[in-house]
Amino acid sequence: MDLKDKLEPININEEFVKQCVRKTISDLGGCDCDICFANACALALNELHPKYVTSQKGALLTEITSTKVTNHADITVEATKAVMKVMKNPLH
Ligand SMILES: [Zn+2]
Asked: 26 CA to middle of ligand 1, Å?
């Protein structure tokens, strides 16, 4: 079996949160190191329900996310809150 055709479950909310957190960090001028990025993603994801889809490994996640994520506004709000929290208390 070709590895690139392998299907795997992907939490598209997680993908969208990552995109939102990246953008929010740059909009707000926050620290964009891996630690702050990961912490903000974790904080935001804890406030949101996961939404899994089955996708081919290596598929274009940005395309999948933009069409399948339905709660854009909720995710944007949680990403913003998480980034602001991390900016106040960076863990490094
Ligand atoms: Zn940092």
From this structure: 12
Distance from residue 80's CA to the centre of ligand 1 (Å): 16
| Cα(54) to centroid(ligand 1), Å | 32
**Could you list the residue range(s) of the whole structural domain that residue 79 is in?**
3-88
Which helix (H) or strand (E) covers residue 10, if one does?
A: strand 7-11
List, run by run, the mean pLDDT of 10-residue segments along the chain (92 residues). Answer: 75 94 97 97 97 84 79 95 97 90
Closest CA to 82 of 20, 33, 26: 20
How many angstroms separate the first and last alpha carbons of the chain? 44
Number of domains in the chain: 1
| pTM for the whole structure | 0.86
